[in-house]
């Protein structure tokens, strides 16, 4: 019996390690559930909307939920990210228009020190609110692993469009159209 | 007599001054802390964008992190304070330590499980190893005659007889 037990245990241990490896690979790869739902037209609620995050350059905290009722372009960025710098003027122009239609751009910094983020805000004259995701959990709930990434959130808090990478004018037009329509 | 009193007074003053200096030096020594260095912190944290230890990273972001750390070092912050400040800025991933949840927990659990499994295996096999060793011992002792064919045994006997 013992002679058989040992190979069985060794096989189980090996299988366990392989399972752990598979789990590790799947856990490390970015979550694309939101993208699939949006593609299908099942617009999901923005995750962790109630999570309170520190406001950049000010005391206090705020959340995405506090903007419920507005069209929100949620934009993840960091000062070290070059495409973020390229899209910043476009986002600022969008903010001008969105504001007039009860909408806003909401920036969220990720893996960035606040002095660097504040420098970025000054350099690109950003006027929209910016929150700091200090743990990375908020960004991860959106499947964000590369910057920049942007999400259009409707007035009911549903994600209706996702842009992973540098944002394009056509993507932002969609947010503007949604804001003007509703 | 007056001279003696003056001597005693001056000795007392010197003793007090000496004690004050010694006390001051001791107090000073008690408050001096070893200064934290950039190098000391650098090897314990990660470059958050390049995902390698900051010590080895050469990217612009690594430079920004170093500047930030150096600023805190210059302010006289301790190593623990600097690490706390880094976590507050960049999140827990800045520490060169796997987290204690999710897949990274495996880093702590798997080695422990492997050690336990090895100990269990040894405990399981030890009795049979001992038994086998005990079984083998008399066979080795009896190798003289037990495993030889009769011809060889006879030749061995005659050879040994010649030496007697």
Task: Explain how this protein is built.
The complex is a heterodimer of chains A (182) and B (164). Chain A has 182 residues and is an alpha/beta fold. In chain A, 45% of the residues lie in helices and 19% in strands. Chain A has a 5-stranded mixed sheet. A two-stranded antiparallel sheet of chain A has the order 1-2. In chain A, helix 3 (82-100) runs parallel beside helix 6 (169-181). Chain A is elongated and about 80 Å long. Among the domains of chain B are: 38-97, Helicase, Ruva Protein, domain 3 (Orthogonal Bundle); 99-134. Chain B has 7 helices and 2 strands, in the order H-H-E-E-H-H-H-H-H. Chain B has helices at residues 2-31, 38-42, 60-74, 79-90, 106-141, 143-146, 150-163, and strands at residues 46-47, 52-53. A two-stranded antiparallel ribbon of chain B has the order 1-2. The radius of gyration of chain B is 38 Å and the shape is elongated. Classes of the chains: A alpha/beta (182), B mainly alpha (164). Chain A binds chain B through residues 2, 5-6, 9, 13, 17, 20, 23-24, 27-28, 78-80, 111-116, 133-136, and chain B through 48-49, 60-61, 64-65, 68, 87-93, 102-103, 106, 110, 117, 121, 124-125, 128.
Given helix and strand content, the structural type of chain A is alpha/beta
Rg over C-alpha atoms of chain A, rounded to the nearest angstrom:
21 Å
Biggest beta sheet summary of chain A: 5 strands, mixed
Uncertain regions spanning at least 5 consecutive residues of chain B: 25-29
Q: Give the percentage of residues in beta strands of chain A.
A: 15-25%
Chain-averaged pLDDT of chain B: 78
Distance between the termini of chain B: 109 Å
What is the count of β-strands of chain A?
7
Q: State the low-pLDDT regions of chain A, or none.
A: none
What is the count of helical runs of chain A? 6
Features:
heterodimer, A: 182 residues, alpha/beta, B: 164 residues, mainly alpha, Helicase, Ruva Protein, domain 3, 7 helices
